Fold this protein.
Amino acid sequence: MLAASVVGFSILSVLDRRILRAAIYLLFVLVAISGLYFMMNYQFLAAVQLVLYAGGIVVLIIFSILLTSQINSRLDRPKLSHVLSGIFAAFGGIALSVTTVLQFTFKPVQAGALDVNMRTIGLHLMGTGADGYALPFEVISILLLAALVGSIFIAKKSNT
Amino acid sequence: MQSEIPLHYMIVLSTLLFFIGLLGVLIRRNLITMLMGIELMLNAVNINFVAFNHYLYPHRMEGHFFALIVTAIAAAEAAVAIALIINIYRRFATVSVDDVDQLKY
């Protein structure tokens, strides 16, 4: 049911011509995906998904929609050639990758499932050993800082 | 009980989501809708990472951290993209990619 809601709402969010409704459908997709993460026992990732995507990015998108267009404005109907090429690319890709995936048999590793709690996440994220992710963590923090400073610089009024 | 869902289903789901996002990027000419399509594609990739991590290597956490990092990058990307969109709107009074055809005044 979660999968059906993910696919259905994503199709709606792509095809709806009222842009604000499309953003709300995107919110439903993200919440359903976080439900999938809960189902796979990754509670922290699901919480991050809810807070960052559903709470942050969708609010940002709705903000920019309200800043740049009227609430009731409808998008232009896309050109037929664009629609045809898009549908062709999408269905071709779906057919190709689904057939490839279904022919492949995955061999899972027989090992006990790791209990993913906050303590293991923290230890791995700051660890410098074999399973440590300290370097990507620092790189991502630098990237976030640079992106924030850059976006403020871009969005401020130019005084030339 | 829930892990009896086969891995193939998760991968097919993320494939569908990815190509729906691609369709959204291709058929829309509005910058914000294209950004939403890109978010859908990033989420599909995240589902793939987490599903592989959960089903194939349940004793390790690579996919988990990859998904976290992809989420952080998506947040940064959305912030920069929306700053750019607002700047473009201020200058051209539109957010359609067909009308924004100048690199420099």
Notes: Residues 2-92 of chain B form a domain with the Helix Hairpins fold (CATH 1.10.287.3510). Chain B touches chain A through 68 residues (CB under 8 Å). The helical segments of chain B are 7-27, 31-55, 62-92.
